[in-house]
């Protein structure tokens, strides 16, 4: 065993001879390399003539205490230097400790914050969060990465991510709460800016696609309007005769109103796709989305002699989704399939299918009998700006995949022997609530 003394041994012996006692900490290193720290007390024993005869040494193993002390010092250094706010409080919500990171984020100095209720940091419309957090901790659960809003000393509201854990005594009883708060305001702003940029890009892609459909859409809108005008004229003729036929006139007026409503619905769908900005998620019937896009695109399909068949499951649950974004995905996939069949010989068939899948998901597919996936480039079709079209932007499939993934789903493509391709995507029927 090797021993490290806190001072040169000659100095220790001199003190022992002069005072008759010495106290200090010794570090013993065992043969296996482990270290033991002891609090050592030496007492000098003398004979009747006053000459030193022996040293009485008592040692107390303080290794665990020293390690705990060092760990506490390290932890203290981490807490004091952390950019995050590290705060402790009682179960009653009274702040008991406050680091420099907390001062930087919230604006209060430690002497201003300690002893005050934690609710000084919580906006008035979120005060119930504190009791909910405490109740969760009492049930033995921690809170990880809870994103919320808090208030600085100057009244400015900031976005924060909270990680909250219980503080327990030696008996395992919860006696307080430890909270780490990270300012994520800049991150949230950047994410919002990215969302807006993505929404703008998606809008450009939708507008470009809709521009390609001008002739078909004009025909689709023109048809019910023409029918409405015809029925309106018929109504007028039935009323203008010497003996007005009220029954026939009413039937013609009803048909005219229905045709007008159909035209208005088509125009409304077109306007929705042209709408710019970020839209909110709502409960959506995916079959309804498919039918809406079928109505808009059947003119384009007829133009290229493409027959569209739908096979839609009837028992599908509604999804929490962005309707416009799902419409855009279906628009892109159906348009791509029609485009892939423009120049093929023989039957041109497009099948749109919806069904339940495993793991509480829905599966939608668009299958065509076109030219199939590009050889050696099948893995590139979802890359931004990759296109096989002369006038294509190369954004449609890339944006579609981003939309589906943002909804927690997956979009992929596969060859459809003997010819054609299938584009499939899944969407979860349940959205997990954040902790």
How would you describe this protein?
There is one protein chain. With 435 residues, this protein is α+β, with helices and mostly antiparallel strands. The protein has 4 domains: 2-67, Beta-Lactamase (2-Layer Sandwich), CATH 3.30.450; 82-183, 2-Layer Sandwich (Beta-Lactamase); 186-278; 280-435, Heat Shock Protein 90 (2-Layer Sandwich). It has 11 helices and 16 strands. A 5-stranded antiparallel β-sheet has the order 6-5-9-8-7, sandwiched between helices. Helix 7 (214-240) runs antiparallel to helix 8. The longest helix is centred in the middle third of the chain and has 29 residues, at 246-274. The radius of gyration is 38 Å and the shape is elongated. The relative contact order is 0.06. The mean pLDDT is 82.
Summarize this structure as a short list of keywords or feature phrases.
single chain; alpha+beta; Beta-Lactamase; 16 strands; 42% helix; 27% strand; elongated
Short summary of the structure?
The chain is built from eleven helices and 16 strands.
